[in-house]
Structure formats: structure tokens, C-alpha cells
Amino acid sequence: MKKLIIALAASAAVLGGMSGAAQAQEKTKVCFIYVGPKTDGGWTQAHDIGRQALEKALGDKIETAFLENVPEGPDAERAIERMARSNCAMIYTTSFGFMDATVKVAAKFPKVKFEHATGFKASENVATYNSRFYEGRYIQGQIAAKMSKKGLAGYIASFPIPEVVMGINAFELGAKSVNPDFKIKVVWANTWADPGKEADAAKALVDQGVDILTQHTDTTAPIQVAAERGIMAFGQASDMIAAGPKTQLTAIVDTWGPYYIKRTKAALDGTWKSEQIWDGLKDGILTMAPYTNMPDDVKAMAEETEAKIKSGELHPFTGPIKKQDGSEWLKAGEKAEDGVLLGMNFYVEGVDDKLPK
Amino acid sequence: MFEAILLTVMTAATPLVIAALGELVTERSGVLNLGVEGMMIMGAVCAFATAHMTGSPYLGILAGIGGGALFSLLFGFLTLTLVANQVATGLALTILGLGVSGQLGESFVGLAGTKLQPIVFPVLSDIPFIGRVLFAQDLIFYLSIVLIIGVNWFLFKSRTGLKMRAIGDNHGSAHALGINVVRTRYLAVLFGGACAGLAGAQLSLVYTPQWVENMSAGRGWIALALVVFASWRPWRILAGGYLFGAVTIGQLHAQAFGVGIPSQFLSALPYAATIVVLVIISHNRRTTLINTPASLGKPFVPDR
Question: 0.80 exceeded by the pTM?
């Protein structure tokens, strides 16, 4: 009987966890740690598409493996260590909450190269990489301000980390550049992927009168609610147009593939070194899904802003910008430094929410 | 506004109520099945896949019920026929369910779902306020109410229900009286699985008509807690489920309204509320013991 249970548990672990790992010996093993299921339709799926692109490009030299649904926190350390022990030469940990665990495990495996997404702690063998999502959120804010009749958007947020706060602020600044009185309501779902909760948050926001929705959570549930209630919404991390063909205005699409190929190549030919990389729209790590369901003038405005951000003419965080309490943050013409953005823990003026500490 | 909130609460509470009700019947027969989460997610994936392929959400519901029941049969075989440890088997069932459903559902991710449409009762649904709330819901909501009434009647008014409760309280005596313990427990486990599957179908057909891995997101565990919360009484499950749903939705509204209370605190509220009520209930030990099935979780080996 016991054997049966063990066999059951083992088969469950196999089904739920590792797959895709081949047994070939000479190939370099490149591993990925995912926070959600690889088919979440959002964040993790974007990373997995990147992994597949990597396998396609360098398949003769490398093999890939991944672990899905690894919870952030202490458990992550075990998962990362397991990967490091199983001969992974390079490990990408793809969620902010894996930061401390990555640095800790990396210290134990100095020969393994680690790359941590969206964090700020690097070391000899830990590089960090991130995408300037806020550039896309600024464009979304502008579109929202044009499309919203009430000048009020609902924002479904996950966790109060700098990444998310930065996104909320960029959205508000973009909106304000079109409509100075634009307001956003924020609901913290305290989850990355729970369709039910995300839908509930979306419904609560719509019931409180917002007429445009945006999200920093990973499933398509909020877009479905928006479609049902007849308002517009933005997709997150992947193109979510299938969930709302008449609802999605655009989406921030993470395109990790080229980055993974570039860095893995560097690791293969020995030129890899620990860096802190923060690429944006101009580097193609982040793209905008087609601008749909909007009038031509709004589309033209969005495209123009996108071009300006790409050319460096426009930086979303350019003063004058006031903090939420009305105090001055950036003087006219002053641009925010990357360090400040990466540690952002305050709202700009116009966000109708109290930031959880 | 209030009506809108209430409708959201009902959608959030229905899967909890249905899954908890099924588990209540299972536990009343003396079997502790911790695999609710696994059976629920199996129900969700079977329902979504069937509804997507046939275009009929009603076939989806049937598939959800079937999927959950079939999966519970595995638990029944292991714990009732092979007399395996119920706690370990239940946990394994949850892990297995999450894995298998992910595998089964892989090709359905990101596809448009088939939403179960509400059944609107003419005339009745025109009653101000309660009409829209009570008489313009989907089939699964109506089923949840029918199930509560039915289970309550079955447990406390029917002869079979009495026998089942006797098994749950003392399977040795029940066996000596000639009641077929294993068969009754199989049926109770199957009912629990079918309910969990129906709850899963509600998730992927009504709540959020889509398939996402792990979409049950711990609701099976909340259902398990609800059974204790309700001290094994069906109507209290309704109260507990709606209380939990109301606090969950209420906190989201409080956030959107901008009350200025930290969101982490608000998110913890439903769980805090559950603990407070549990403490109040277990304060009176005697009434708790009256309702707790005495043989809960104990293995039964006939003729030995």
C-alpha cells in the first residue's frame, strides 16, 4: 500500500513538475524556474515562449529544463538548488520573489550562472535582467485617458513591489498627459494568478464605476469581466486578444526569447559576466500588441508615443512630477534615475489608493 | 450597487458551498477526504474541455460531475478497499489532481470558454431586488440550494441518512447491526467527488469561463475548513460559505473605495473571520462533539 502511495505521489510530482528534460550528456543544460504554470496565458507563458525560442535557436548545443508552479519564498530555494544539483549550467529564475533564494543558492554553486528576472540583487554569478514595462504602461495610460468617458480607470495589482508601483505610476502619468484630472482606483489582489480573485477584483472595480480596466496579474479573467460588462481593458504580459476580441485595446507583450538566446550564447562562448540589464521597447524585449478597438486618432497617438519612447525622445518619468501627497518629486525636465525607479515605493499624484507598506 | 455586490458574492460562494456540502456527506460517513482540491480541479478541467468541444455547458456540467466522481473513486478504492491511510491518500489525490488536470488541460489554455447562461424565471425575477438575485441565476446556483435542502433532509429525516450517520459515529457497531459499511462509504465518497466536480465546473463555466492550471487556487481547502466551520451541519455551510464570500468581496470593494486600510490586512480578513468563528463554535465543546463523526478518518477492516 505504502508503495502505491509513493508511486502515486511520484507520478504526481512528475506530472506536475519537471518535464522536457532530455538525457543527452554533451549538451549544456539551461534551466528555468517558473512561478506559475507555463500555460498561464500571461507572465510565465511569455517566459516559456522565450525558452522555446532558445531551444530552437541553440538546440544543437543546449537542452532546457524547467520547474513550474514554484512558490515564492523559502520553497523556491529548494527548487533552485535542485536544479543546480541536476547539472544545470545556467539557471533563469523568472519571478521577483525568487531574488533572495537565487542569490543564496548562487553562493553555494559558484560555477553555475544565474539570471534573475526583475530583481535588484546581483553577485559574481548572478545577473539580473528586466524589461522597462513602464514604457508600455505609459502608452496604455494615454490610451485609457482618451477612451475613458469618466476619466477613471481600475487597476488590478498583485503585490506592492517597486515593479508594480512603477507600473501604476507610469499608467497614471500617461493618462495625465492627456487628461490632467484622470484618476485610477487600485485593488490589490495579493496573488499573481488566481482567475477567480482577479475576476472578483475586476467586478468590484466595475461596480464602483470605472469604465476601463488594466491589470498587473497574470490570467485573462479581468479581460473576460470587462468584455462581459462592456468596457475596455488592457492585456498583460502576453497578447490576450483571444479573451476579449472586442475588449482588448492593446497589451504589453514580454518578448524574452532574444534576450535568452543572447545571454546563453555568451555563457557558451565564455563571455558571460554578471550584469544588471534593463532593456525596453527599443530593444524589443517588450512589444505592444496591435492597437485594436480604438479610433484612428487614438491609435496614431499611441504609435507616436511608442516611437518617441523608442528613439529616447520621451522618458515617461520626466518632471515636473508631484508625489501623491503633493510634494515635488522631479523638477521640470528632470528624468528619474533607474535606481529610484527600481526601488519605487510611493505613488505619484492622482492615484486614488493608499500604498500598502 | 448592493445588488451587484451580492451577485458577486453568490458567484464566489457557490463553489465553496457545493464542495463543502459534498465533503460534509463524506465526513458524516466517517471518511476524511483531503483530496477536495484535486477533485475540484479535475471537475473544472473536464467541464471546460467538454463544454468547449461540444459547445454545451450543460454537458460540461455533467462531465465535471463525472470527472470529480471518477477521481474520488480512486480515493475510495485506496482507502476503503485497500484501507490505506486516508490523510495521506487525500493529500496524494490533491497533488495528483493538480498534475493530471494540468496535463489534460494543456491544449485548452487560452481558449474562449463557454459560459453557462442564467436561467431567468419569468414573473419571479421581476420582484424588486430579490428577483434578480434569486431567480435569474445559473443552474449550478439553483443546484447548490437544492443540494443543501436535499442533504439536510437525507441526513436528518431519512432512514438511509440515519444509517450513514451511525456508520460515521461507530463503524464497528454499524457493521455488527448488518449495515454495509464499505458500500455506504463508497457512495458517500462518490457523492463528495461529484459535488467537488460540480464546484469545479462552476469555476470553469460560470465564475471565470476559461481554463487555467491551478485555477481552483486553494478553494478546495477552504471548502474543507467550511465543513468544520459548519460543525457538520448543512445549513451552516451555506452561512459559512456566504460569510466567507462576503468578506472576500467586501475587502476588494473596500480597497476600490479607498478606505485606506492596508490591503494585506484586508486580504487576510476572510481567513481571520473564519478563525474567529471557529473559536466561537468550539468554545462549547459539547455541541461540537455531538455533531463530529466519531469514526472520522479511522480505517475500517470488516470481519476482523
Answer: yes
